[in-house]
Each structure stands twice: as C-alpha cells, then as structure tokens.
Write a structure and sequence with these properties.
Blueprint (H helix, E strand, L loop, with lengths): L1 H16 L4 H38 L7 H21 L3 H12 L6 H27 L2 H9 L4 H31 L11 H12 L3 H34 L1
Length: 242
C-alpha cells in the first residue's frame, strides 16, 4: 500500500508539478472553455433562426401563396437539409471535414473548432427551440397580432421568452454535451485539455494521472453547470408562481 501511494505521489509530481506542467493544463482548459462558450453562442443563434423559420413555415403553410411564401418554402427546405445532414453525421467527421476539407488552407484551429461545434450544436438547439415554440399556446400569437405586433415582434417579445422557460432543461443538457464534446478538438491538433493530457502522457509515459486529472476537471465543471442551471430553473419557476 505504501508503495502504491508513493507511485501515485510520483505520478502526480511528474504530471502536474515538474517543469510547471500544471500551467499547460490551465492553458488547455482556457482553450476548452473558449471553444465551448463561442460554439454555444453560435449554436443558439443558428438554432433560434432555424426554429423561427420552420415555425413560420408551419404556421403559414395553409395561407395564400405568394412570393413571401415561396421564399419561406425555400428557406424551410434549406433548414431541413441542414438538420438532416448535421444530425445524421458524427461530430468527429464534421470536425475533420471542416478542418481538412473546407478550411484546408487555414491553420486557425480554434476558429475552425468553434464553427464546427457551433454548426453542429445549432441543429440540436433548433429542434429544442422549435419544440418550445410549439409548446406555447397558439392564442399567444393571436393575442400579439391583435395588439398590432407583426410576426417577428410577436415571436421576439411574447413567444420566445415563454419558450425559453419551457426548453431550459433541454438547452442545459445540450450545453453540457457540447462542453464534453470539445474534447474531440484534439483530433485537429488544438491544444485543449485532452491534447494537453496526451502530450504530457507522451513525455512522462504515465497515463493514469493525466487522464484521471482531466476527467475530474470535466466532472467538476459539469456539476457546476448543472447546479447553476437548476438554480436558474428554480428561479424561473418561482417567478411564474408569483
């Protein structure tokens, strides 16, 4: 047992203390956070836009045809193709295509990773937001239109705020999944937490401590995110009861 503790202590020293290797983990963590946050923002923007387009198409399908309806049909078709392709292919494959095919002449790995993860997340956020919009009573749209608001204003001021409350748990799960999936960026040589652990493991020839270390970091971050989301959800629920 004593030898085991000595080995653990030695592994810890070699992984985190020697040559200030803990700084490499800090830098890797900052890359992971930047990719996750920027991709989440991009995914939410894409998701909301697509959800609004698809909801508008569904709500106006039976109305009189015109140029606007034709354009809406084209936009809805593009959105459905996007959703089918993105949700039907693995995240890793999308990342590799984005880095080695679409942006093969660029070596800005961080930007490529943000675009790849943001576009992927947008497909899932779109369906989450769309389900939230559909959960809002149709009378809310009619009430907004009766007050003189156009479709976009009604969605912005009345429908979307109510939908956000309904989809917060699902949106939180997508955020947590996105954060964990950022570990895939090591495939394009972006030095995040996972790539840092692989690099240090290649130097020290010790796999236990680097990988257990980053697993603990991911676990703690997910627990914190889950706690924050539950607090926000509780506040929103309490505000509805007042």
């Amino acid at each position: 047992m004593q030898e085991w503790f000595q080995k653990i202590g030695s592994d810890f020293y070699q992984t985190f203390i020697a040559e200030d290797r803990w700084m490499q983990f800090v830098q890797g963590f900052s890359v992971t956070i930047r990719v996750a946050v920027l991709a989440l923002v991009l995914g939410i923007v894409i998701g909301i836009v697509i959800a609004v387009i698809r909801s508008a198409h569904d709500s106006q399908r039976k109305k009189k045809k015109g140029v606007g309806q034709v354009l809406l049909n084209i936009a809805d078709l593009i959105c459905r193709i996007y959703l089918t392709v993105i949700r039907g292919t693995p995240m890793m494959v999308q990342l590799l295509i984005m880095y080695f095919v679409i942006f093969s002449s660029s070596r800005r790995s961080l930007l490529v990773a943000v675009l790849a993860f943001g576009i992927n997340s947008g497909a899932y956020v779109a369906e989450i937001v769309r389900s939230g919009i559909m959960s809002v009573d149709s009378g809310q749209m009619e009430a907004g239109r009766s007050l003189g608001l156009n479709y976009a204003q009604t969605m912005r001021y009345i429908i979307i705020p109510q939908a956000i409350k309904n989809i917060l748990p699902a949106l939180g799960n997508e955020m947590i999944t996105l954060f964990k999936d950022t570990s895939l960026v090591s495939a394009i040589a972006l030095k995040d937490l996972t790539k840092t652990a692989l690099t240090i493991q290649g130097v020290t020839y010790q796999a236990f401590m680097p990988f257990i270390g980053i697993a603990v970091v991911y676990l703690v971050c997910v627990m914190i995110l889950s706690k924050v989301l539950s607090m926000i959800e509780r506040r929103l629920r309490n505000s509805d009861l007042r």
